[in-house]
């Protein structure tokens, strides 16, 4: 069985390597997405000091009094997905669209709070910031960090296009509006007993909706992915190295649809840290707080996503019908709020 402590790829071999190194890299990327559903990148291109600073800003933001955080409130409903969501506001689910079933699932709240922002010129989902004097510098930092992450998304999209023998900028051209989302997540310290007995959750098992997700996690642990080979079997994705050393990349539903399932949108969740990683927490009644920073990328709203040529054949027919990225994403997002 794979333990997910291996499978780390060096992204600099793609970004600055020779043709041969780039070919090797995309082959390994393809293997990782087919077999594990995610990959860990080192030398990923996001400035490590900025990642650490982003965690520091995140801790500062979430430590503000509740009424101050509510000066940048996430509007009611799923859209725009911007601003601050308090604990319990969002409940992530998978494959449940019926309102009464969703209400029942909400009885087990996700114990997390989040702050979402996007591109400065995203008119469809304008940013919602705190008044500047409440946390001076926060907005400028997040706007810059967004650009840093977006650049890496575009490089990964090129690598994915190359892995599928598509023109190198194929996927980039479908993401030209840069309607991505930078998310700060804080999971407060919670009772081990309640989490282990599933009376509360941190983030329940789900796949991401868009095309790909970059994820930085702190050293707490708790992220798990479902095995591609055995449904229901979750394996921890241990944090390794210092904060910012490693970037976890997983694919979302729309990339699964584009590739006709060659690459799956891996199901993942956040639980308590794995015991083999943090033995000291066994003695405590509480799991420590956790912070993470996902960055979600998705295609332009009007892009029609359907299985790409080369990803289906007579013997491997299309598994998905065409749908626009905007319609698909909204359908899934609507279930979360
Ligand atoms: O906190 C994490 O590590 C994962 C968060 C996540 O899966 C999400 O926000 O979609
Ligand atoms: Fe996720």
Automatic annotation (TrEMBL):
<dbReference type="Pfam" id="PF03171">
    <property type="entry name" value="2OG-FeII_Oxy"/>
</dbReference>
<dbReference type="InterPro" id="IPR027443">
    <property type="entry name" value="IPNS-like_sf"/>
</dbReference>
<keyword id="KW-0560">Oxidoreductase</keyword>
<comment type="similarity">
    <text>Belongs to the iron/ascorbate-dependent oxidoreductase family.</text>
</comment>
<dbReference type="GO" id="GO:0044283">
    <property type="term" value="P:small molecule biosynthetic process"/>
</dbReference>
<dbReference type="InterPro" id="IPR050231">
    <property type="entry name" value="Iron_ascorbate_oxido_reductase"/>
</dbReference>
<dbReference type="InterPro" id="IPR026992">
    <property type="entry name" value="DIOX_N"/>
</dbReference>
<dbReference type="InterPro" id="IPR044861">
    <property type="entry name" value="IPNS-like_FE2OG_OXY"/>
</dbReference>
<dbReference type="Pfam" id="PF14226">
    <property type="entry name" value="DIOX_N"/>
</dbReference>
<feature type="domain" description="Fe2OG dioxygenase">
    <location>
        <begin position="178"/>
        <end position="299"/>
    </location>
</feature>
<dbReference type="GO" id="GO:0046872">
    <property type="term" value="F:metal ion binding"/>
</dbReference>
<keyword id="KW-0479">Metal-binding</keyword>
<dbReference type="InterPro" id="IPR005123">
    <property type="entry name" value="Oxoglu/Fe-dep_dioxygenase_dom"/>
</dbReference>
<protein>
    <recommendedName>
        <fullName>Fe2OG dioxygenase domain-containing protein</fullName>
    </recommendedName>
</protein>
<dbReference type="GO" id="GO:0016491">
    <property type="term" value="F:oxidoreductase activity"/>
</dbReference>
<keyword id="KW-0408">Iron</keyword>
